[in-house]
């Protein structure tokens, strides 16, 4: 079981509206920053920063494919948490 510090770090990472939306939009097969940017009205550099926070918290993982980096959701439970918060 994760410590309270680890849980708090995860919650802090998703506590930003843009990061919540990124998590909800990540598909099972993953996507790169360009694909995410098409769906959000944010600059590429801002999306990359948000993805870095999510990756450091262990919520997403990345895999390099040539010049592109594909991001996938590592913790599916986070999507469920966000959905449940939306019902409050």
Could you list some keywords that capture this structure?
88 residues, Arc Repressor Mutant, subunit A, 5 helices, 57% helix, globular
Roughly what fraction of the amino acids lie in strands? 5-15%
CATH topology: Arc Repressor Mutant, subunit A
Quote the distance from N terminus to C terminus. 26 Å
> What is the subunit organization of this protein?
single chain
The tally of helices reads 5
CATH architecture label: Orthogonal Bundle
Q: Pairing-aware structural class of the strands and helices?
A: alpha+beta
Number of strands: 2
State the shape: globular
Read across the widest sheet, the strand sequence of neighbours is 1-2
Number of domains: 1
CATH superfamily: Winged helix-like DNA-binding domain superfamily/Winged helix DNA-binding domain
Overall pLDDT metric: 88
Give the fraction of residues assigned to helices: 55-70%
Low-confidence stretches: none
Reading off the top of the CATH hierarchy, the class is best stated as Mainly Alpha
Q: Tell me the radius of gyration.
A: 13 Å
